[in-house]
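Appendix B.2, paired examples.
Example (i):
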Amino acid sequence: MHGAANAPRNRLANQTSAYLLQHAGNPVDWYPWGDEALLRARELDQPILLSVGYSACHWCHVMERESFEDEQIATLMNGHFVCIKVDREERPDIDHLYMTALQAMTGRGGWPMTMFLTTDAKPFFAGTYFPPRDRGGMAGFARVLEKVAETWKTRRDEVEASAGRMVEFLAKLGSRGGDEARWSVPAASEAAASLVSAMDTVHGGFGRATKFPATMALTLLMETAPGTDSDQARLVRLTLDRMADGGIRDHLGGGFHRYSVDAIWLVPHFEKMLYDQALVARLYADASRFFDEPRYASVAAEILDYVLGEMRSSDGGFWSAQDADSEGEEGKYFVWTRDEVLQLLGVQRGERFCAAYDVCAEGNFEGKSILHRVENAARGLDEELAQDRAELLRRRRARIAPATDRKIVADWNSLVISALAAAGRCLGRRDFLDAAEAAVNYIETSLVAGGSLEHVHPAGGTAVPAFLDDYAFFGRACLDLFAARPDPRHFQRALWCAGHLLDEFLDTRGGGFFFTGSRGESLIARTCDLNDGAIPAGNSVAAELLMRLFELTGERHYREAADAVFTRFLADALRQPYGASHLLAVAERDRKGWRTVVVCGRSEVREKLSRVAEAVYDPATTVIGIEDGSAPGLPAALVGKDAPAGTAVAYVCEGLACRMPATSERELARALRRDGGFGGEA
């Protein structure tokens, strides 16, 4: 049971974050991040114990139960440290900065993040999860606390010097100069080959265990594959199939869990994060076009139906996460016994279901069974098993469900908007496009204040200014929605986001964009990097947004700012393609050449041409259908485009230069072909 279920015992009781409230009943004298805590550390001359996590984090719950509820450990924490608890989803700037330090100190990262800071918030010792007492070769948290407190008192000069060196390291990361790489076809294929060499050729995915969906890396492999029958493409398909069949997918309720703890995609950490739903849905929607595989489109639709059904607020925004735990046990809500299934479905149907989804007497997870498809056994029985799945889902909904973190953040909502826009067009789902528009309107009405975007509001009673990811992702989402529904307001919103990026986040000396804006809180260092984490790197999405805006407007300053991102980061990205897959994908699109296909004419006659253009998997091409280019507020690339009355034509444009308009499906298919690229005639 989380501390929030107990009577409030510390300052976190006044916070709005679900994660902080989970710790409000701890005997630890927690502070939220802020001036009060930082001033208290200086007044007492005590180091800061910074603990960062999020509400759906299983190991955060474990450490809370084992250590933060332990009176003896709480006494050590309160006696020697000023203890600060941070929700990484509310304050990604704090998480991003200190996670960089953690990775530099230990070579790894993760949550809960446990960081020890000097009185001026400089990091000097760090870790992730600690057991309460020494266990399995791991130092116990009680011993760590005692050792750090002793070191602070007896070796203060060494601590301060070490912390100073770490701050210098962080500052250099945020101010390094450019290292321009020449982009070429061999460089693209070498980056892809490096990724392929790290893949599991039996079960798909990268490495052995733990396995994440790795959506950015898989997208890069699709974009650089020489064709759908190549070895590279076959490994992507293998991964998509194994994930769709595995326990990482919720086969009853929809959506994907965070990651698989094993190599075969069976046992997940059961939390469901909003960003995973967006990125995995977009991956499967794109794969449905690349492989011409309707089944992948169905997976994408199932994920987004789950998001709309269970993670959407009444006013159109999307909640952050659903927990891994319920009733104090990880995964309890999701697993089954054979007897339960047979009792619910009857023997004949139950036996069929158990065989298809590996529900066995001994179980495959702590005596119970995680549903997963056995060697594709359930795939041919989808229609027959649909009723069985529905009955199990109804029974599951009678259980005590995991908690939902109802925090709404701008960047993750923007990822969902992009996924809904892409899948809405791919699947012909108007409801997806309606939901995307509603989410854009939610952000505009609820997360914009004083002419600027907020990351999340309210957070602990105060607004948090938007970060790089918020503006970059929202701007791109508005462009994605504009392509699906060319309302000039969506385009103008994208321009607004780009303006804020250039005014508040641009590193004018080194190129690229800082994670924090000029109006945000000043921390010990300002970071600027290229690494994809659970979501694409903000710099890579900013570059994508700016390049697409340049293609639509011809405004050179967008192109120059995007080029500066590549000058600074591309060489590093080529050396570590897994950690910078999205930047490499954007660079690959730039190498191919960005294009806009403008399909004009009355809606009922332009649909055939639009379908031809949209059927080609080419992420560097944006398809926009309009009646004509006379509406005010449209980008320059669309202005003046029209078709003779009663007909439809398609303009294939690179920047503001367009080919002669295509009037037939065959002409358009020919115009869309790239020499040596992927695509073909209808």
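Example (ii):
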Amino acid sequence: MSSLSHHDITMLLLALGILLGTARLLGEIAQRLHQPSVVGEILAGILLGPTFFGALAPELAADLFPQTGSVAIFLDGFTTLAITLFLVVAGMEVDLSTVWRQGGAALRIGLSGMVIPFAIGFAVAWLIPGLLGQQRGADSLVFSLFFATAVSISALPIVAKILMDLNLYRSDFGMVVVASCVLNDLIGWMVFALILGLTDTSQAHALPVYWTIGLTLGFTAFVLTIGRWAFDRALPWIQAHTRGVGGVLAFAMTLALFGAAFTEYIGVHAILGSFLIGVAIGDSSHLREETRTVLDRFISFIFAPLFFASIGLRVNFASNFDPIIVLAVLTTAAIGKFGGCYFGARWAGFARRECRAVGYSMISVGAMGIIVGLLALQYGLIQQRLFVALVIMALTTSMFSGPMIQFTLGRRKRRTIVGELNAKRFIPNLQSSSRISAIAQLVEIACKDQKLDAELVGDAVMLREETMHTGIGQNVAIPHARIRGLAAPIVALGLSVAGVDFDSPDGEPAHIIFLLLTPEDDDGSQLEIMSSISQTFLDRAVVTRVLQAANFTEIRAAMKIAAESTDESRIVSQPPPNGNGNSAT
């Protein structure tokens, strides 16, 4: 019986550690730059793969990330498991009831946003396959169908995140876009599964193609109807007879792996089975948000980064970069996707400006397009040059989407207290026993390095304080004012061990005091930041963690965790708007 040697195990664990650490680091940096984390994760693989590290230290790179042998087989199997589990989470993002609630608008946009780019992509690949680098002897029909799918699918997780950041997720506009993406995902993965069933490769299975197609359609129908109903009935029993979230997680993962094994057996990729199981389980009203969050975070922060980073290990992006193919893919995807969604939105009765915003929202191909491209590369449908172009197209459209929605609708990312905190404006121990002296200390540090008159700012804050006291309870106070000449909001934070009386509704002194200064012509940032503070400190435990923190970093971490948890709960619990979805506000 063959097994990994001592050296193999050492290098495997080292490789996984380097890959995960680099992917998470660059993923966080990407998010700080307001880009999807997948951008940084793929960049990590490019840096560690043959494009950079492999060129600088080829022997060490080959030892860490071998292309053949036992370690390579294990890494390939591990990344297959990673993407299979990632598609469970992607499936759980799909809310089938959202499609029904949005009715005709989502149906028109979803179908147009799939059919039109699919038709354009198919025509380009069929008529000028050489421009896209089709291999000689390759099946033109399968190649064209694949390319059409790759440029017509949407990245639901990225689209949802962009809408959340712009505070549009629960608007009529956001719900229609999300519902349309749901249709795109379902149709796109079904079509791609059938394409793989038509593919004659070394991975071919014993079942005839017509059996593969029939079983795929039957499995999909079963899971989304009877299976969905059965899962919904089973979850309460599992929750009642198991401890914590572990029972439900094991149940979900077991079913996902069974579903993945079945679709792999019938001749389509395992990811279709896990995706459909994720849709069915995620649609249950009995699935607790805590369970969903635990699963999402574990997979999204461990397995997904490893998978996306592994993409860069497979291909040399420098030697396989072809500007003509990249331009052709980008142009085809952008024109087809934007045009199809714009037409669908006009068909649904949207105003022209909102039609453009819909097009920009759904133009993001993101991780879904990359996954489709990688599978096509593994199945021998495309060459590495086209795969590199597809990755670049997916990343470009994902980076392009958010800013264009902002520009079109005049929206900006909502401000949060965590985003506004600054260690330079933090006083760990306010030496104040009164509101006046506490505010004076905070004003002084807030105006430091700013072209502001501290005395005038202090007067403005005290004038607001005299109008209505700013203690909000839970040992928190938010003295604030609008300041002439201020360009952007400023937040200063002070902690008081003894506490300061800000006349809070609960009668308790304030130990956590935020000074909030906003421009005179404030565009709503004051209310957003104050709301963020209030929501963050709803839980008394957060107050305790902040007061017991040893430094500013621990304070920021405690508030960030609380804010993320509050945002997730708010998004899930808030009922979606009614109507036909033709309003962006």
